[in-house]
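Crash report, auto-generated. Payload:
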Amino acid sequence: MRHILGISAYYHDSAAALLSDGKIIAAAQEERFSRKKNDERFPHHAVAFCLKQSFLTESDLDAVVFYDKPIIKFTRLLESYLAVAPSGWLTFPRILPSWLGEKLNLPNTLRYEIPRLPDHRPILFTEHHQAHAASAFFPSPFEEAAVLTVDGVGEWATTTIGEGRGNELDILEELKFPHSLGLLYSAFTAYCGFRINSGEYKMMGLAPYGEPRFVKAIYDHLVDVKDDGSLQLNLEYFDFLRGLRMTNSKFNTLFGGPPRQPETRVEQRHMDVARSIQTVTEEIMLRLARHAREVTGKKNLCMAGGVALNCVANGRILREKIFEHIWIQPAAGDAGGALGAALAVWHMHKNHPQPRTTMQPDAMQGGFLGPEFSDDEIETVLKSHQAVYRKLDRESLLDEVATLLANERIVGWVQGRMEFGPRALGHRSILGDPRSPHMQSALNLKVKFRESFRPFAPAVLRERAAEFFELDEESPYMLLVAPIHPSQRLETSPTATGLERLKQLRSRLPAITHVDDSARVQTVTAEQNPLFYAIIKRFEAKTGCPVLMNTSFNVRGEPVVCSPDDAYRCFVNTEIDFLAIGNFLLERTRQPHLGVKPSFHPVPD
Amino acid sequence: MWQLFKEFFMFLRQEKKWWLAPLVIILLLLAAVIVFTGGSVLAPLMYPFL
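Recovered output after restart:
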């Protein structure tokens, strides 16, 4: 079994990943191609890209693996509906056609979608959390490790603790639906008026503006948490079993009012709710991590599942030193399930060919597993838009971009292979000067068109990270939040509350300092991310600052840009000052006013 | 479709969830009708619920 295609689809964030002889050749989310955020449809474009990148066709595939088991999931749905019958009568008929039509008989559906897959090549299934666990452990740099997966729900499991060793991965304990930390967090996300499966980042960003005054109410009424991190939800306060809403009127009463309507003003109460559930989530994650250490006795931890994208909680697990080292799958959400499913089959199938060898710093190749575009391809696109551009050699490009950044200009940076996972890591990024006090609000309001409270992340040279952040560990995937180093902090008035705190100058790097003096750090090395390292290094040479502000190249409701065409369309429709794409440099104000439309279908978030 | 019936049968036996069998059989028959008729026969019955 040489070439294995992993698929995640039909729920949210569909994706494809391809392994050849155990090496990760390609992986991408469908949304990047279809331009529909969190696209759940079968990942035709992503599959086509993976095959093209591998120089393979469908008929060359030795196996296709899907990231969960539909029969188990379907019976969970049936049992859940029966448990609350007749309450689910409104939603059951709605979900039934898609299950009976495509999701249940998935082998048939997948053969229909991949028509040239030979009949004798198997379609395999992993369990949802097995795929998450495999995506966390097998690419990690550890020979053996504890594995913690936490998300909303797979088939039945919502949280698992496992142990990985060589080619083996055993799930030792699991928590089952409906008792779920991911669903608990999502319930609060919906209550605060954000979209489930994408608004969780906003909750995390909003939390530091609030006070944790609802923590006691959450523990007293909503969730019973045991010492080992397992939990039991009080279902009297939730409606998700019935399928219409996440929460009910009893929940609303507990938190002082009805759910916030999307796009309405964020009140102090919402900030306090966000802070409270974030605090509870961190405490539960800490207990789970401690229990994982006790159960496995391992000194390293691997994590995946949607809750593993909660980088504030991850940072706390790191600082508590429960484990010596932590590695988190950069595509920790369901998209990463495609990769995990393929890895699980490669390593754990009875015919697996060879022992696993670990790679340093890991086997993810920096997370740069998506498509890239040559200068010829880029120039063709630029010409089609009648764009005004200059082609530079690499050194001149680095020098000019570093100068622009030092002059507080905002630069779109599109280089090399696209990232796999939700974070832009310097290949599909918007860059800015973190020292600028205006950058955060300018970027939120004029470029990304998103809420003013949302923070931006720093990308820092690995060797100088400790000067700016209290972080000992590598954080190449921007999945750890760390405090700003005290030497960089500035005195602020303690009387400011809520969004007033946004206007305070809190550190020497105000654009990337959140209101609790923390930052979601990306450490950058020359080995893993050479060109991005070079631009930060050049910025450092000009300014003495080895940090750049790095945010994903997209606007609100848009998937991160993938192709040169996506990048150009996004660039001319925002106030990004310059675009550096391949070896080309473009200035926005010099572009022709041709009314270029954005390339995406906006999804409310 | 027959393969799906077989897999469900094995699953129910393994998990000892025979009480789900009547519901599963009815739903799988519905699925078979959808698959073999392209949904056209069931559509008028489904519309009131959608």
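Post-recovery validation: The interface with chain B takes residues 71-72, 75, 78-79, 82, 93-94, 96-97, 99-101, 104-105, 107-108 of chain A (CB under 8 Å).
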